[in-house]
From TrEMBL:
Organism the protein comes from: Leifsonia kafniensis
InterPro entries noted in UniProt: Anthracycline_SecMetBiosynth, Glyas_Bleomycin-R_OHBP_Dase, Glyas_Fos-R_dOase_dom, VOC_core
Gene3D superfamilies to which the protein is assigned, alphabetical: 2,3-Dihydroxybiphenyl 1,2-Dioxygenase, domain 1 (3.10.180.10)
PROSITE patterns, A to Z: VOC
Domain called VOC: residue spans: 11-126, 140-256
CDD domains hit by this protein: SgaA_N_like
Protein name: VOC family protein
Amino acid sequence: MPAHDTTRLGEPCWVDLMSTDPASAQAFYTALFGWTATTSGPEYGNYVTFWNGDAQVAGLAGAMPGAEAQRSAWTTYLSTADADVTTAAALEAGGQELAPPMTVGEQGRMAILADPSGAVFGIWQSAAHTGFGRFGEAGTPVWIELSTRDWNAAVPFYENVFGLKLTPLSNTDEFRYSTFGPSDGFTGGIYDSDTYLPPGVPSHWLLYLGVADVADAARRVSELGGAVQREPWDTEFGTFAQVNDPTGATFLLSSIREV
């Protein structure tokens, strides 16, 4: 399997899970995807890196103790050349700073932000840690999507702050969606979901993880203590299922085309 190319600035470069039960989450994902896991030392908060073979594909950390309304959730990180400059630009464009820029040892520099529609995401200025080692294959992230309640606020924010280049897939009131990434292999999209999201569900970034058989993987999710929120459905883009891990973190299973 080929290694993932260097991530383009402004696009997703990493995902990690903030979990209320890291031990259960680690057992679930390693069993479901065949990942192996390595744990950093205490200087990095015992951060867990998931590997698909020799390629790093995702991370895992424990939720902050004592935080109110803490829940397990995946965070998407967008690549930046300068975390401080990007944070300042995000604030000027109507975003929020949830965690200020900080240096993570020799790995890189990060911050946690929210866009004007309320979707939380991270930014990553890489050093030793350069992001995904594989993408678009079974057992790796294959798609990353912003589901936004305010299209008119979110789209110009990402275009102006990150220089994200969007390609419209559909632009009607019934279905408004744009993709991003290289023309020969889009990596994610932005979805106008205000009329589709249940009441109380905020704008958010969604992670799609690739599997060879979505129906079989969905059954395994239930066997491993997770829950299937939406049974597998077929589209022109592949087969998908929306699931939760045992601690409640949501992600989607996505079919992949084996080459």
